[in-house]
């Protein structure tokens, strides 16, 4: 059992993993110090300011979606005082996929008036845009997955798995591939079937609302990092921004953590940085060389978010729509979501030809695609492209994932890459942080 009076935990990294670790420990009265190398907390889940005509607009560094199955994230936010109804628009599962190029659509919605799991069964059976045989093949696959508890004995690329289970090219293009890109940010030809099925399991095999989409109505800093930091400060945690940790060295009864100008002593350390930053931090921890060898081999996938500002009266038919056969993949009407009238956020996940374009060229291409899909859209007033070029690790088949525990007693790893059941998501990061906190508290 940890001695609360003697324990002092260093948490290195102010993203979701570090924030969730710090919150769980602070709740139990454990002294913590949170180090963040940059000026902002929240990692990829944070807001940024865009200036246009002497005005500043707050947007997210990438448009995010949560699922109703993200129970640990929702509990964390509730703990720090975030009211779900104020922070998120909760939508029962509804996919509206449009292919302007081929003039085809897919519409999938769970009838909310039916009990679970009948609502899902009827949702797939009544899906518009797929033939009767394609719908039955999809339902058959879902029954099979439920029977095997969404678990596979051997991993394989998701596209191979779907083809083996009689999913048509149309179903893959309009249903499974968009879900794969949204959940794993990895091309379907490379994506891990095992990890994808874990996400499906949590969304479809739990409660009725687990498959709901939760779309932020406020910027992510307001929803996540700001209330968590407020909670930590009221629970007497030390929060340090612009404090890059340069080294971690084991010493008697703990660790010495050094920044450029100071050295600190801690009983426990949680490294909650991105996987690609591990090597720089662990030069004095040779027993972690095998972990850095694993993570150094990771490939990374980008996420581009293209913000387009239209006149304030411009809206889309739904707040969230999917696009197929285009560079653009998802478009969000932030006027309907968070009152930023006329502002659209277009998300492009994973690697592609769009990366060869300049940001202005990409914005022009996206604007042209939106106009093709929604002819009432005029020329945008301004645009902003936010490119997260290493947004997530590529969640590929049999990807080695480190554990939270390390060969060093009282030194732990947190981060979405350590939560092997999930891809790089907010929920994976939060669960990894909670796992580290529980290891310290036990």
Structural description of this entry:
The chain is of the alpha/beta class. The protein has 3 domains: 8-45 and 221-298 and 401-441, FAD/NAD(P)-binding domain, CATH 3.50.50; 48-88 and 214-219 and 299-393, Alpha-Beta Complex (Polyamine Oxidase, Chain A, domain 2), CATH 3.90.660; 106-206, no CATH class. The protein has helices at 16-27, 71-79, 84-87, 118-125, 132-147, 158-164, 169-184, 193-204, 220-234, 278-281, 289-296, 334-338, 359-373, 426-441, and strands at residues 8-12, 31-35, 47-52, 55-60, 66-67, 88-91, 94-99, 104-109, 213-216, 238-240, 247-251, 254-258, 263-266, 268-271, 300-309, 320-323, 330-333, 343-349, 382-393, 411-413. The chain has a 7-stranded mixed beta sheet with strand order 8-7-16-17-18-15-19, with helices on both faces. A hairpin with a 4-residue loop joins strand 7 (94-99) and strand 8. Helix 2 (71-79) packs across helix 14 (426-441). The longest helix has 16 residues, at 132-147. It is globular and about 65 Å long. The model has no long low-confidence stretch (mean pLDDT 94).
Task: Tag the structure with descriptive keywords.
Polyamine Oxidase, Chain A, domain 2; 442 residues; 5-stranded parallel β-sheet
Secondary-structure blueprint:
Blueprint: E1 8-12, H1 16-27, E2 31-35, E3 47-52, E4 55-60, E5 66-67, H2 71-79, H3 84-87, E6 88-91, E7 94-99, E8 104-109, H4 118-125, H5 132-147, H6 158-164, H7 169-184, H8 193-204, E9 213-216, H9 220-234, E10 238-240, E11 247-251, E12 254-258, E13 263-266, E14 268-271, H10 278-281, H11 289-296, E15 300-309, E16 320-323, E17 330-333, H12 334-338, E18 343-349, H13 359-373, E19 382-393, E20 411-413, H14 426-441
Parallel strand pairs: 1-2, 1-14, 2-10, 7-16, 14-20
Antiparallel strand pairs: 3-4, 5-9, 6-9, 7-8, 11-12, 12-13, 15-18, 15-19, 16-17, 17-18
Helix pairs in contact: 1-9, 1-14, 2-14, 6-7
């Amino acid at each position: 059992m940890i001695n609360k009076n003697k324990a002092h935990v260093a948490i290195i990294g102010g993203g979701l993993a570090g924030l969730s670790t710090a919150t769980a420990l602070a709740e139990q009265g454990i002294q913590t110090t949170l180090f963040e190398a940059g000026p902002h907390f929240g990692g990829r889940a944070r807001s940024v300011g865009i200036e246009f005509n002497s005005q500043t607009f707050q947007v997210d560094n990438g448009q995010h979606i949560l699922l109703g199955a993200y129970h640990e994230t929702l509990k964390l936010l509730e703990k720090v005082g975030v009211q779900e109804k104020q922070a998120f628009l909760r939508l029962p599962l509804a996919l509206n996929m449009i292919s302007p190029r081929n003039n085809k659509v897919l519409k999938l919605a769970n009838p909310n008036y039916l009990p679970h799991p009948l609502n899902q069964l009827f949702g797939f059976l009544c899906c518009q845009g797929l033939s009767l045989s394609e719908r039955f093949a999809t339902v058959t696959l879902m029954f099979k997955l439920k029977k095997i508890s969404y678990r596979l004995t051997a991993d394989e690329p998701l596209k191979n798995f779907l083809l083996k289970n009689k999913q048509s090219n149309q179903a893959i293009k309009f249903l499974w591939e968009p879900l794969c890109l949204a959940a794993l940010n990895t091309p379907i030809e490379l994506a891990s079937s095992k990890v994808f099925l874990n996400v499906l399991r949590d969304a479809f095999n739990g409660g009725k609302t687990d498959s709901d989409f939760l779309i932020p109505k406020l910027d992510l800093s307001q929803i996540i990092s700001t209330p968590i930091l407020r909670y930590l400060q009221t629970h007497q945690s030390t929060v340090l921004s612009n404090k890059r940790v340069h080294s971690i060295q084991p010493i008697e009864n703990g660790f010495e953590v050094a920044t450029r100008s100071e050295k600190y002593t801690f009983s426990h350390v949680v490294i909650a940085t991105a996987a690609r930053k591990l090597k720089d931090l662990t030069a004095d921890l040779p027993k972690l060389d095998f972990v850095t060898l694993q993570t150094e081999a990771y490939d990374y996938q980008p996420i581009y978010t293209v913000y387009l500002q239209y006149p304030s009266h411009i809206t889309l038919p739904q707040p969230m729509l999917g696009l197929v056969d285009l560079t653009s993949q998802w478009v969000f009407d932030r006027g309907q979501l968070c009152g930023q009238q006329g502002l659209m956020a277009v998300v492009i996940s994973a690697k592609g030809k769009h990366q060869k374009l300049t940001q202005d060229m990409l914005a022009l291409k996206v604007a042209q695609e939106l106009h093709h899909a929604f002819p009432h859209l005029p020329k945008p007033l301004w645009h902003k492209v936010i490119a997260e070029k290493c947004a997530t690790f590529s969640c590929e088949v049999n990807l080695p994932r480190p554990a939270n525990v390390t060969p060093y007693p009282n030194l732990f790893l947190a981060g979405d890459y350590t939560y092997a059941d999930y891809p790089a998501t907010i929920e994976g990061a939060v669960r990894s942080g909670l796992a580290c906190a529980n290891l310290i508290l036990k």
